[in-house]
């Protein structure tokens, strides 16, 4: 059957119909008064979503482009940075920082385990001559479904006093509480195809007053990703370069939907979707890759001991037209990942778990009571 | 009346209905086999459009991001580059090159005049120790409506033997002949919201074998805009970072429309639209900013002596819902620009010229025989 695909990967995520229709509107001029009004509204609502009074800038980039801008605008070649590495994205930021000549100190944990805040504390407390200029953290590590303890790590960064905290919130913003001003997060990067409920193509970066001070002395060559002109133009409700107007108009619609649901509603829904998915996996006798208390509300990584994760994904796709994500790099075949980020409701989880049960049966796996997964999810939803 | 806007700016350009509908399709996973098939087809058709057997890479960026990648991947800090400056975009590339520490030699002409190929010849012939590593040319200078003589300048670059030719073809590709392989153009950058007939959000870069050799020794720090990983992934019909899948699917549709029209058809249509627009402006007694023989097939800049160009734009917008572009920087108020790039037909030009006549009358300008502009355009279309 055509056009029945159900996307349960961590991005692109499902897009609501009214957002798709907004996307399909004929473009308007990006220097028109009409478009400026939309930019003004979008920027206000981005600040609401980030819980900040400071700047939130919009760039035409993938998430990686947003993270590059989030780093290179605020440090200098040779600067020491701590990079949290417990998955594919943490590792990517270490590589990115190295490409720009930063002195990268990796603070690592095994893939599937959370970063240890105490390890950051040790590095930061030992740094009495304040050589560490930034701490770079992946909040929700998409590759493993682990939510790192940003709040605690950030507290140690604040105690250090000098270092900026730079956050990859690509799959946490719009899924879990990221109170930018309350926590004093200096730079927070995210991407449109995640909690924002729109297709890929836009990156967002919030910047604190302290980060803007660091910007004044940051000399790494840059032009397209230089955030200064974005700030200057945002003050006039415009952008330095032609923005993807259709995506901005889609974003306007999506942000209004998010405001109607409210931050509390959004966060508790994602928490519920994650809990139901995790409980269902346990009831089916499948392993969870992220330990209890560190599951990402955006994505659940399931480790089906004794079964090939790729086979499960394949049956889910062929028989039930549900796209799940596989394991990346050395995790391929060991885990599959169920995305529950953005425009996802309780029914979607029930459909996914029911299809997972059916797929497991088809593969001859009998390690669970039929219906146990759906029942476990339903128990969470009934609470 | 709502939703009657007619876009006649040089980008975003009008988007065909079937492309808008393709854009509104539900996203698919960018790592799926289905999406890889689309990427393969799109890349093949981009090569057709560029008239090249070499690579054409697709990035999530505005045109400026594409030009940055087109430059920083192939030169080193301190390298001497010649930059053609006869408008806002040429000036922008000089600034960009300076931001990355290149030794920029500007080869300038007044805004509205074409670059002088002999000036390039002089610089290139005098460079006997081959210090010039690249020549950077804006083919169609969008800010002034001037088409620079790329073919001749490129011939002098080829005679030099060492320097790469790097081309901003943002408003020339898909409007006028840019035979990448025939001319041996090393790096050609363009953007989606122009001749491609889709909204902004994608940049394209073709890269010659000679440019890939220069890439091997190019050391300017880069990550998101590093073209190596794009090439490597394109060979597997994928991208290093999440692409804007909806725009790619829209591009698939648009490129198929372009193939159906054929390169000759596309180029002769743009030539005809330009000629009709220029003839009409002359018949209305309005000045043309670009001299005869150097008009861009993408955009015509009109200099209405004795009239405020901004007033004309304002009446055209308010009374006839036609968006024209204004003059940029010091040209504001002195010129207005009629975009005729991409999804534009003869009827659109007649509508624009007829509305321009009516607007001029409304402003009390009587320097033309009523109907003379439309008649002049119609004469071109009748040929």
TrEMBL record, chains A, B:
<keyword id="KW-0808">Transferase</keyword>
<dbReference type="InterPro" id="IPR000192">
    <property type="entry name" value="Aminotrans_V_dom"/>
</dbReference>
<dbReference type="InterPro" id="IPR020578">
    <property type="entry name" value="Aminotrans_V_PyrdxlP_BS"/>
</dbReference>
<dbReference type="GO" id="GO:0019265">
    <property type="term" value="P:glycine biosynthetic process, by transamination of glyoxylate"/>
</dbReference>
<dbReference type="InterPro" id="IPR015422">
    <property type="entry name" value="PyrdxlP-dep_Trfase_small"/>
</dbReference>
<dbReference type="InterPro" id="IPR015424">
    <property type="entry name" value="PyrdxlP-dep_Trfase"/>
</dbReference>
<dbReference type="InterPro" id="IPR015421">
    <property type="entry name" value="PyrdxlP-dep_Trfase_major"/>
</dbReference>
<feature type="binding site">
    <location>
        <position position="337"/>
    </location>
    <ligand>
        <name>substrate</name>
    </ligand>
</feature>
<dbReference type="GO" id="GO:0008453">
    <property type="term" value="F:alanine-glyoxylate transaminase activity"/>
</dbReference>
<keyword id="KW-0032">Aminotransferase</keyword>
<dbReference type="Pfam" id="PF00266">
    <property type="entry name" value="Aminotran_5"/>
</dbReference>
<feature type="domain" description="Aminotransferase class V">
    <location>
        <begin position="13"/>
        <end position="328"/>
    </location>
</feature>
<keyword id="KW-0663">Pyridoxal phosphate</keyword>
<feature type="modified residue" description="N6-(pyridoxal phosphate)lysine">
    <location>
        <position position="194"/>
    </location>
</feature>
<comment type="similarity">
    <text>Belongs to the class-V pyridoxal-phosphate-dependent aminotransferase family.</text>
</comment>
<dbReference type="GO" id="GO:0004760">
    <property type="term" value="F:L-serine-pyruvate transaminase activity"/>
</dbReference>
<dbReference type="InterPro" id="IPR024169">
    <property type="entry name" value="SP_NH2Trfase/AEP_transaminase"/>
</dbReference>
<protein>
    <submittedName>
        <fullName>Aminotransferase</fullName>
    </submittedName>
</protein>
């Amino acid at each position: 059957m055509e056009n029945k695909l159900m996307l349960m990967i961590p991005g692109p995520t499902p897009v609501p119909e009214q957002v798709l229709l907004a996307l399909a509107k004929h473009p308007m001029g990006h220097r028109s008064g009409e478009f400026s009004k939309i930019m003004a509204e979008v920027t206000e609502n981005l600040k609401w979503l980030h819980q900040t009074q400071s700047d939130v800038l919009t760039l035409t980039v993938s998430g990686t482009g947003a993270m590059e801008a989030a780093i290179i605008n605020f440090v200098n070649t040779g600067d020491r940075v701590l990079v949290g590495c417990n998955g594919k994205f943490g590792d990517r930021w270490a590589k990115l920082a190295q490409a720009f000549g930063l002195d990268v100190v990796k603070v690592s944990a095994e893939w599937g385990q959370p970063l240890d805040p105490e390890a950051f504390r040790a590095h930061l407390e030992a740094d009495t001559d304040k050589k560490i200029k930034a701490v770079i953290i992946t909040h929700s590590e998409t590759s493993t479904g682990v939510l790192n303890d940003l709040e605690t790590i950030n507290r140690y960064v604040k105690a250090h006093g000098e270092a900026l905290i730079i956050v990859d919130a690509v799959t946490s913003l719009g899924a879990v509480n990221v109170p930018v001003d309350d926590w004093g997060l200096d730079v927070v990067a995210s991407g449109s195809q995640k909690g924002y409920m729109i297709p890929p193509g836009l990156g967002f970066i919030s910047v604190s007053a302290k980060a803007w001070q660091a910007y004044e002395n940051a000399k790494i060559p840059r032009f397209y990703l230089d955030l200064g002109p974005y700030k200057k133009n945002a003050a006039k409700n415009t952008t330095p370069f032609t923005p993807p107007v259709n995506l901005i108009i889609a974003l306007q619609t999506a942000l209004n939907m998010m405001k109607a649901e409210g931050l509390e509603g959004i966060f508790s829904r994602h928490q519920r979707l994650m809990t139901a998915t995790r409980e269902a996996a346990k009831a089916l006798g499948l392993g969870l890759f992220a330990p209890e208390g560190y599951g990402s509300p955006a994505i659940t990584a399931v480790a089906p001991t004794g079964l090939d994760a790729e086979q499960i994904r394949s049956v889910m796709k062929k028989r039930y037209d549900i796209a799940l994500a596989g394991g990346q790099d050395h995790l391929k075949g060991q885990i599959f990942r169920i995305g529950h980020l953005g425009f996802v409701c309780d029914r979607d989880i029930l459909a996914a778990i029911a299809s997972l049960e059916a797929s497991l049966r088809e593969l001859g796996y009998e390690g669970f009571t039929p219906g146990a997964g759906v029942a476990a999810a339903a128990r969470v939803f009934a609470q």
